[in-house]
Amino acid sequence: MKQTEVTITNDTGLHARPAQQLVEEANKFSSDIKIVTGDQETEAKSILGIMTLGIEKGTAIGIKADGSDEEAAVDALVQLIESNFEG
What residues are labeled active site? Predict the structure, then answer.
């Protein structure tokens, strides 16, 4: 399992378009990928799950993946987030 933490820096947080981009990126990988904030955890491949977390700008989230491409999955999601979803 690979796990890391990243802070959301885009103005809208993980709502609508950024959440959809995150889901699309996560779906490129076969690993089981989770988004964690506080005591909540959801599937990174579920836009509804991500939207229900209500993640706003400045929130630190955990990304954890378990599977054959876990390293690449976490790295890709971190890169997407750090690019403010412009990657």
Answer: 15
Cβ distance 9 to 64 under 8 Å? no
Lowest mean pLDDT among 48-57, 66-75, 78-87: 78-87
The residue extents of the domains of the chain are 2-82
Strands (E), 1-87: 2-7, 32-37, 40-43, 60-66
Do residues 45 and 69 touch, judged by C-beta distance below 8 A? no
Gap between the Cα atoms of 81 and 68, Å rounded: 22
Q: What is the pLDDT of residue 86?
A: 87
Prediction pTM value:
0.95
Residue 87 above 80 pLDDT? Answer: no
Q: Which CATH class is domain 2-82?
A: alpha beta
Cβ atoms of 55 and 61 within 8 Å: the answer is: yes
